[in-house]
Amino acid sequence: MSDVEAGGATVFPYIGLKLYPEKGSAAFWYNLYRNGDGIYKTRHAACPVLVGTKWVANKWIHEEDRSLDVHVA
């Protein structure tokens, strides 16, 4: 993440958390239960940057290889 003069927070409204960007920092959270269901309370959103520029990087980590899962309807 990068430092931002104003705005740019990542908010988790269902748990009352707001993370402000800070150079060199990182955030990590699980968004799935072990059974694959989504964890609703980890829904999040990015607030607009009011002054400055925000740089971020995302890394998706998959604990199990689900590329061969077949779902039959």
UniProtKB/TrEMBL annotation:
It comes from the Eukaryota. InterPro entries: P4HA-like. One of its GO terms (cellular component) is endoplasmic reticulum. Keywords: Iron, Metal-binding, Vitamin C. GO terms for molecular function: L-ascorbic acid binding; metal ion binding; procollagen-proline 4-dioxygenase activity. This is Uncharacterized protein. It comes from Arion vulgaris. The gene is ORF133547.
